Amino acid sequence: MNHSPPLKVAIIGSGNIGTDLLIKVMRSEHLTCTLFSGRNLTSTGMKRAKELGINTSDLGIQAIVNTPDICDLVFDATSAHAHIDHWEILKALGKTIVDMTPAKLGAFCIPAINVRECLGTGPRNINMITCGGQSSIPIANAISVIHPDIDYIEVVSSIASRSAGPATRANLDEYIETTEEALMRFSGAKRTKAILILNPANPPIDMQTTIYAKIKNPDVPAIRQSVENMVLKLKSYVPGYELIVPPTVEGDRVLTTIKVVGNGDYLPQYAGNLDIINCAAIAVAETIAIAAIEQGKKHV
Question: What is the β-pairing status of strands 7-12 and 73-76?
């Protein structure tokens, strides 16, 4: 039996995403959080980390620069703009970085589709795209398996306004651009469009994403089977992922809708948009950790 130590990870960004990531890391047998770093030691997330006995810092990425050996992998839960500088620093330090922002500097990763392609040696930048991307792209990809000649795909994600924090709102343009680019890559569609709706309803709504695909003579039974297979893959790391409208023909389009209910680790269950991207990031980090163990390495 292999008793290799868990992969040492650091989290930069003490907001909702970073704090929820922390709770998920602590639950993983393959990961251990050696640093939780932000800018404000009195923030809600930082206080929670301290209560949990986690090593904290208010120096941001500088905390890693000061002690490079503190981690092997870094989750960047800050902003797309900040990530540009962070990547240059962490690349020089030889770190693997899992980018939670829509900066799209690294390789796009959807665990259910291409996590193994994101493995390798040396510094790596793995981009988790967006919450809407993590929810919609697997379905678009499943449709493209049956119909590789998709003309147009449109995805509309509706999330609770309360689950969209300052960083999410500041990165809306990057969100659209990154989601559309990743949709095109993983589906092969000639044209793509992404829409994000911040719904102020009270009580807050669960995340829902509808995928529209313009296809000539769609084979609906085959599409349904492919989508159902993909949903099973998603549920292996996102338990709250659910198909609520199976692929159906509407006019000249095939539409399907999914819902994501969060685990409720740190965030409310309605914040499925944040939960899905965090679950995906944890799945990537755990895959890296397991691959390192299989290769007989202590670190990535």
Answer: parallel
Nearby residues of 68 by Cβ (< 8 Å), 6 or more positions away: 93
Superfamily of chain region 7-129+277-294? NAD(P)-binding Rossmann-like Domain (3.40.50.720)
pTM of the predicted protein model = 0.94
Query: pLDDT digit of tens for each residue in the chain (300 aa)?
Result: 445 789 999 999 999 999 999 999 999 999 999 999 999 999 999 999 999 999 999 999 999 999 999 999 999 999 999 999 999 999 999 999 999 999 999 999 999 999 999 887 667 999 999 999 999 999 999 999 999 999 999 999 999 999 987 878 888 999 999 999 999 999 999 999 999 999 999 999 999 999 999 999 999 999 999 999 999 999 999 999 999 999 999 988 999 999 999 999 999 999 999 999 999 999 999 999 999 888 775 444
- Is 109 an active-site residue? no
User: For the chain, what are the domain ranges?
Assistant: 7-129+277-294, 131-271
Let me know: does 139 contact 188? Beta carbons within 8 Å: no
Options 33, 109, 118, 131, the catalytic residue: 131
Measured over the CA atoms of residue 13, residue 18, residue 19 and residue 22, the dihedral's sign is negative
